[in-house]
Amino acid sequence: LIPGVTLLIALFGADLRWHGATLFVASQQTLMGLSVASLIALLAAWRLTRAPAGAVLHESRRLIDTLGWAALLPLVLAALGGVFEAAGVGRVLATLVGDVIPTASFAACVLAYGLGMVVFTLIMGNAFAAFPVLTAGVGLPLLVRLHGADPAVVGSLGMLCGYCGTLLTPMAANFNIVPVALLELKNPWSVIRAQWPTALPLLVFNLFALYLLAMR
User: DSSP string spanning 55-89?
Assistant: First the structure.
């Protein structure tokens, strides 16, 4: 319910009106959709499980206590990406990439951006941290400005390439290390070993999709 309702409101929320008033502000449409979707999912969960009203607070606290510091990791890493960009890492990266790859080749720029998202995600543990650096250093100057690619396609598929890196790195502790502890698995690499056969083919698909769709 959460992703489904959020998607519907993000796509069609601007057309929903009540007595002539717009229900969802265009600039906050997706965020408002997520809030509404969460409430609907909560009501559905209560209906399905017949749990007492206080169970949601108890289980939320229990989950956060179990995750511990890893619950804050995505927020911290996303902020770190913003710090890197403000420090000019993206501009330095743009210069280095321009010296290494043939920037006149759209395919080479796609590979540099997509694989760069994966590598930075492997190092930093989160695609949100890699996104501002790689997009400012490679995506915008080379794909969008130089080759005229669609920025919406570049941004969305670039993030999907980064997510493939999330599936492969222990630095994404909240995804790949915490589940090992929660499930009491013997091998600390169990989650990553289960994910890499999905991550690599998905990365290849995302790169081809970026190459084929960004110029349409």
Answer: HHHHHHHHHHHHHGGGGGHHHHHHHHHHHHHHTTH
